[in-house]
Design brief:
By secondary structure, this protein is mostly helical. The chain contains 3 helices and 2 strands. It has a two-stranded antiparallel sheet with strand order 1-2.
Length: about 110
């Protein structure tokens, strides 16, 4: 029987020589994170960062223009607020889509 370091992976015993590096031992023992999982976590973070940037700018712009319109014509405030709420809901839906995609990346792939 050859001399070596005994590593167990998923119930299987693997014999390796003593010249192996610690990284190789960690890989054989399954103590590493694979690249697909790393890419999924990175993509989820980028997805939420970029996916929430646009809607937040759009909602701020919509709210500001609604305040300007109400300031110019206060008697139509009810109509302007209803239109603003509808526009903000549509704008927020793209951030919700980004959130769903990032959760799929984290839990389905990662």
């Amino acid at each position: 029987m050859p001399t070596g370091v005994r590593l167990e992976t998923n119930g299987k015993t693997v014999l390796k020589s003593r010249q192996n590096h610690s990284l190789e031992r960690a890989i054989m023992a399954g103590e590493y994170m694979d690249w697909a999982r790393v890419a999924a976590y990175l993509a989820a973070g980028i997805c939420m960062g970029v996916g929430s940037l646009g809607p937040s700018i759009g909602q701020g712009y919509t709210g500001g223009k609604a305040c300007e319109a109400i300031g110019r014509k206060p008697e139509s405030a009810g109509s302007i607020v209803r239109t603003m709420i509808t526009a903000m809901a549509i704008t927020e839906s793209s951030a919700i889509y980004a959130f769903i995609v990032s959760m799929l990346l984290v839990f389905a792939i990662g």
